[in-house]
Amino acid sequence: MNPSLTFLLPFRNAGEHLEEALLSLQAQTLGDWACVLVDDGSEDGGYEIAQRFRKKDGRFRLLRTGGLGIARALQKGLEGIDSPLVARMDADDRAAPERLRLQLEVFREGGDRLAVVDGACRFFRDGGEVPEGMRLYQDWVNGICEEEDFDAAFLLECPVVHPAATIRRSALLAVGGYRDGDFPEDFDLWLRLREKGFAFRKVPSCCVEMRDGLDRATRTDPRYRRGAFVRLAQDYVLRNFALERPFALWGAGRGGKPWLRQLMEAGKPPAFLVDVDPKKLGRKVHGIPVCPPEALREKAPAFCLVAVGAREAGPLIREEIARLRPMWREGRDWWRVVT
What we know:
Layout lengths: L4 E7 L3 H12 L6 E7 L6 H11 L3 E5 L5 H10 L5 E4 L5 E2 L3 H12 L3 E11 L7 H11 L4 H7 L12 E3 H6 L10 H11 L3 E13 L5 H4 L5 H15 L7 E3 L5 H10 L6 E3 L9 E2 L2 E4 L3 H4 L5 E3 L6 H12 L9 E3 L3
Parallel strand pairs: 1-2, 1-4, 2-3, 6-8, 9-10, 9-13, 10-12, 13-14
Antiparallel strand pairs: 4-7, 5-8, 6-7, 11-12
Helix pairs in contact: 1-2, 8-10
């Protein structure tokens, strides 16, 4: 009989922390689970640790790939899963005991359109403090819980913590599973799920404690560079937004120029740019006029993309848009985009 849920845990040279991660799975208050472990080319004894758990606990299965890379290793593991739900987990993290129970409750309430139930996370670092940037990301991502929160956030940053996410297997298969390429495989997956109309939710309780090591792939692997996130978001907008209608792009500076360039190359330029810098107002960038925020009311664009990277600018822009276009809703009529 298949379990209702299967953990998908790829690892490579994770022997130092793998046992701790697997013990946290065994400590789940819900016991109806399996775990597919994918050794993606370990050379440090991690395979032997996984073998030990497999022999003692029949819920663990173990695959070896020889070193395919994270996306292909995840896809290989996914091919060996039959359960309706797939729970991601990383080899150096710790799952909270209530993680599965809480996420399954949300799935039961959500209906078939609900594809991803994420969980709040807590970053920690062995023998030191988590950097401010990661603490700010933790606070931001943990606040994205309801569907409308994901609507507003999905183009700005990765709004799902992949190792804390439980995903409907049928939805994964509907979008072709994990793709390998020169881009972050998780952000790519969330965008493709959104494109198919699937919904996202988050458990507000901490589901995973994530070890913020200096060797995290998000810090060391070029596939997670900022420009790769930008290109995925741009491609999504080009495929899915009604760019034939007049729209505005807020940001005539460093954050907005790559978006303007991409939109113009696609033959879908904005009607005008919005900026607050007096030095830019009244000028043109590649033939597109730069206007003050009041143009959002006076020119009445169909929607607005906000490409401003400064974190502190977000609340100010939100306040200004609410003043000028009170009927607009973030995530429906305007979006902040990654820069």
